[in-house]
Design goal:
Elements (H helix, E strand, L loop, with lengths): L6 H23 L6 H17 L2 H9 L4 H5 L14 H11 L10 H14 L5 H14 L8 H14 L3 E7 L2 E6 L2 H11 L4 H41 L39
Antiparallel strand pairs: 1-2
Helix pairs in contact: 1-2, 1-3, 3-5, 5-8, 6-7, 6-8, 6-9, 7-8
């Protein structure tokens, strides 16, 4: 799933994201709030991360443009702005869509993105229940005191929404329902959440297809062999038995020159080799 991009494309994408971050910083300075310093610190940290980001994620964004300037400044109906903690997760989502995998054992964004995707795949659509599922998932991975599912699932859902992978589908009181909006992209995120890169998924699919094709060919060959054997038996019943010298020597498959040969009626197919998947 790698896409051909130039260094100019990567750097232009990097600059676009940094400009969107700077615009959001300026907007935050105009809003009445008590947590301005912590938000600006977070945005500065994220900006530095973008400056160091590799071409794997940025290259995907360069060939699949995301309007970060509009997204980072967007408002929901509640008038709340785009969750700043969803911003770094946008880079991880891009990495997954480009064929990367999540390592849930490392915790952080990888774990929470995987937790949300796995919950939605299990049919959990109410945001509060998704949050509970993320807590349970983190605890299953060994983080026994984890309880940040509510905030982490919220920012993760906004990052997935930014790429059009999920969308809001209704409310229960103040709690949002979510549904899959792009099945192909969600399937890639699901593979990534299960620790699978796109190349490993492709290899598994190719191996399964080859094994299935081989099994089909073996079955077809056995069927043709049995049919040929039955034909010889029928011919023997109708005609006089040929002279022994006129009966050609036969072998299973092809003769020395590669021509098809008739199998003797008492030929038994060897058991097919055991396949390992």
């Amino acid at each position: 799933m790698l896409f051909p991009v130039t260094l100019d494309t990567v750097n232009a994408t990097r600059a676009l994201i940094c400009d969107a971050i700077d615009a959001r910083k300026e907007k935050e300075r105009t809003l009445p709030q008590r947590s301005l310093d912590s938000k600006l610190s977070f945005l500065n940290t994220f900006r530095n991360r973008v400056l160091r980001a590799d071409a794997f994620a940025l290259g995907f964004l360069g060939t699949h443009p995301v309007a970060f300037d509009a997204i980072f400044m967007s408002h929901r109906r509640s008038n709340a702005m785009f969750n700043i903690y969803a911003m770094p997760k946008c880079l991880e989502v891009a990495r997954c869509l480009n064929g990367g995998a999540l390592d849930s054992q490392n915790g952080g964004d990888h774990m929470t993105i995987a937790g949300v995707v796995l919950a939605i795949n299990d049919g959990i659509t109410l945001e509060s229940k998704i949050a509970h599922s993320v807590n349970t998932y983190a605890q299953y991975l060994g983080r026994v005191n984890y309880s940040s599912g509510a905030t982490q699932s919220s920012s993760t859902l906004r990052a997935l929404e930014a790429f059009g992978i999920v969308k809001q589908s209704g409310k229960l009181g103040n709690c949002q329902y979510w549904e899959i909006a792009d099945t192909a992209s969600f399937a890639r995120m699901l593979d990534a959440s299960n620790g699978k890169r796109a190349d490993s998924v492709s290899a598994d699919t190719d191996a399964a297809a080859t094994a299935e094709s081989g099994a089909s060919d073996t079955a077809t060959g056995r069927k043709a062999s049995r049919k040929a054997g039955k034909g010889r038996k029928a011919g023997k019943s109708a005609d006089a038995a040929p002279d022994a010298a006129s009966v050609p020597s036969v072998d299973a498959g092809n003769d020395a020159e590669g021509n098809d040969v008739i199998l003797p009626p008492d030929y038994a197919d060897p058991a097919p080799a055991e396949m390992t998947f």
